[in-house]
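Whiteboard transcription, Tuesday session. T.W. wrote the structure tokens on the left side:
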């Protein structure tokens, strides 16, 4: 069993907390601070227990020097200061004397946020490549390491695995909550239903291969459904098609014909737009120049019937182009059905969590994961380095 922040005496200790402050920024403003808010429980716990806090996070992708100016964490330090109601010091560098002086001057309950860990990726990808010297250096700044960044738990970086290999370590409250919530999917109670949406089958081949062995039913909607439908020889018009995955879909359908549940009607249009005519049509009646944008009412009923007896439901990916107002009904209707059941309901990060938040259902499910990619890797049965590296 992994240690958590509760297992350590934090009093007067320099505690490094790896957070996930990878928030969307537009025109110099944070447009969604949810990831910062999610980190507050762990940060406040450390403050209340008299720690000296050194916070680390990445923001965006840093491939060249020019990327640094638009991916500074200084704006996050300002927002975090507002949320905590106290000053958050900021180090504009990720190594060197300036950073070390700021760390060494910290008093109990003071908070320091270091600049974007991925600034160390130029040159040489030292952060994302888990450079051993960088991990050892960052570890030398603290006495205890807490990983509270679930969004990067599937990556072995210097700022998680690297630091954890040198210091006593534990999980923060957010990562602990995520791991506990997802653990019910390792050996699920039955009936276990999986809902998969999104655009490409190729992104979820590993997930499908792992879950088709465990699930009683896999309900498939969204753009990826059309590749499965094409594999069955069903007309899909000019709907999105993942050509390279057709053979995989044929294999899954032939080996598990009773497990895969596909749409039978959809909402179709002739252009990928929210401002053109659309119609609800059975798949067999789609025109060659039409594309599917959402599941239709017959499919909503079909999917809802599958959910009636479910004990656990895992859902990744929306069932239509929910960003367009005319094509939200499928995703919203199935969400409404989902929260009316007595099943344990887990949303697997990314777009389905965004959709559930936009449509008002996020707080009605059992768990809405903060990590999209990491949740999918977990569902593939892969180990999460950021969790595995934590002290037992």
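and on the right, the sequence the group agreed on:
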């Amino acid at each position: 069993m992994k240690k958590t922040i509760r297992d350590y005496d934090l009093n007067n200790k320099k505690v490094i907390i790896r957070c996930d402050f990878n928030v969307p920024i537009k025109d110099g403003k944070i447009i969604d601070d949810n990831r910062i808010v999610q980190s507050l429980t762990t940060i406040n716990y450390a403050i209340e227990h008299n720690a000296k806090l050194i916070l680390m996070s990445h923001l965006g992708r840093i491939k060249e020097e020019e990327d640094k100016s638009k991916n500074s964490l200084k704006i996050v330090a300002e927002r975090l200061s507002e949320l905590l109601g106290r000053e958050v010091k900021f180090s504009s560098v990720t190594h060197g004397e300036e950073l070390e002086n700021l760390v060494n001057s910290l008093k109990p309950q003071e908070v320091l946020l270091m600049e974007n860990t991925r600034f160390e990726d130029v040159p040489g990808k030292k952060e994302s490549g888990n450079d051993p010297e960088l991990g050892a250096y960052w570890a030398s700044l603290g006495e205890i390491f807490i990983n509270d960044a679930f969004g990067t738990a599937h990556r072995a970086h210097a700022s998680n695995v690297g630091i954890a290999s040198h210091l006593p370590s534990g999980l923060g409250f957010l990562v602990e909550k995520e791991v506990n919530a997802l653990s019910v999917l390792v050996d699920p109670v039955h009936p276990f239903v999986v809902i998969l949406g999104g655009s490409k089958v190729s992104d979820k081949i590993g997930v499908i291969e792992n879950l088709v062995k465990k699930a009683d039913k896999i309900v498939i909607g969204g753009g990826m459904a059309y590749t499965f439908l094409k594999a069955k020889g069903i007309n899909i018009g000019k709907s999105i098609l993942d050509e390279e995955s057709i053979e995989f879909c044929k294999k899954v359908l032939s080996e598990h014909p009773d497990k895969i549940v596909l749409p039978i009607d959809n909402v179709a249009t002739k252009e990928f737009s929210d401002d053109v005519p659309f119609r609800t049509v059975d798949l067999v009646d789609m025109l060659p120049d039409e594309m599917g944008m959402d599941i239709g009412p017959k499919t909503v009923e079909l999917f809802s019937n599958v959910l009636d007896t479910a004990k656990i439901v895992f859902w990744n990916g929306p069932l239509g182009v929910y960003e367009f107002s005319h094509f939200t009904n499928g995703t919203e209707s199935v969400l409404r059905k989902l929260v009316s059941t007595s099943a344990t309901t887990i949303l697997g990060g990314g777009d389905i969590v965004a959709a559930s938040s936009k449509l008002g259902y996020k707080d009605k499910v059992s768990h809405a994961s903060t990590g999209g990619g990491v949740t999918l890797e977990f569902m593939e049965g892969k180990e999460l380095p950021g969790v595995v590296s934590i002290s037992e």
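Someone added at the bottom: The chain has 14 helices and 17 strands.
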